[in-house]
Amino acid sequence: MRETDCNFDGMLCPSMTDMRPTAAKNFWRKTCTWPEPMMNRFSQFCALGATLMALSSCSTVNDLITSNLPESHSGRPSIIVSLREQEAYLYRRDYRTASSRISSGREGYRTPIGRFQVIRKDEDHRSSLYGDYVDDSGRIVKANVDSRRDSRPPHSHFVGAPMPYFLEFSPGYGLHQGYLPGVAASHGCIRMPYWKARQFYNAAHIGTPVVVKP
Questions:
Q1: What value does the CA radius of gyration of the chain take, rounded to a whole number of Å?
Q2: How many CB atoms lie within 10 A of CB 63?
Q3: Number of Cβ atoms within 10 Å of the Cβ of 121
């Protein structure tokens, strides 16, 4: 019998061409296949691995883990945003306890710079300016509109874009969960990943200082 490249527990499997069909089938079934429980565990492992790889590609796993770690410091919270670095930082007294990637205002919609404080919190906030026109069934008739400029199609109404975990620090501007394309792309607000937006939201309160740096 010739030997093939199949290897099972250190044993080389014979070529099927050197065996009768029935014998070859029985040999491979007994020696070159995994038991069903092992196959089930392997399939589950592969599915988990694929899921983690997909999540890791957009840093979701890291955000999930770091945003749920117990805080090692206590004290009055404050938030500092660096537009140049496209990062936001959460502090407790003088200790940085969390950081997050952000997407701030794009050209023509600059995020205001200066010293502010949280003036409103809204966990399920929606934009009053940007969103979609939808019909009574919820079907989008006109997407990505500015309600001040874009005319409303007949038999439709405006639905604001979702801005979960909204921390307003200046009228019309705030930190909230949103899409991060890797560059400044918002209408002036500060977008954050879901888990980080929730972490900052839960840590902050009305009056929490917010400093936005160039």
A1: 27
A2: 21
A3: 17
8 Å CB contact between 129 and 148: yes
Closest C-alpha among 194, 206, 205, 207 to residue 68:
194
Q: Give the C-alpha distances (Å, rounded to integers) separating 16 from 12, 21, 23, 31, 161.
A: 12, 8, 9, 13, 62
CA 119 to chain centre: 26
d(CA 14, CA 200): 62
Contacts of residue 23, defined as CB under 8 A and 6 or more positions apart, other chains included, come to none
Per residue of the chain (214 residues), what is the pLDDT tens digit?
A: 444 444 434 434 444 444 454 554 454 454 445 456 555 665 655 555 555 455 445 578 888 887 777 777 788 999 999 999 999 999 998 899 999 999 999 999 999 999 999 999 999 999 999 999 999 999 999 999 999 999 999 999 999 999 999 999 999 999 999 999 999 999 999 999 999 999 999 999 999 999 999 9
Write down the architecture of domain 77-213 according to CATH: Beta Barrel (2.40)
Q: What ranges in 165-214 are assigned the alpha helix state H?
A: 194-203
Contact at 8 Å (CB) between 159 and 143? Answer: no
Q: Residues 197, 98: contact at Cβ < 8 Å?
A: no
Ordered by start, the domain boundaries in the chain are 3-56, 77-213
**Tokens in use for 97?**
């306890």
Q: Give the Cα separation of 113 and 209 in Å (integer).
A: 13
Q: How far apart are CA 138 and CA 20, in angstroms?
A: 64
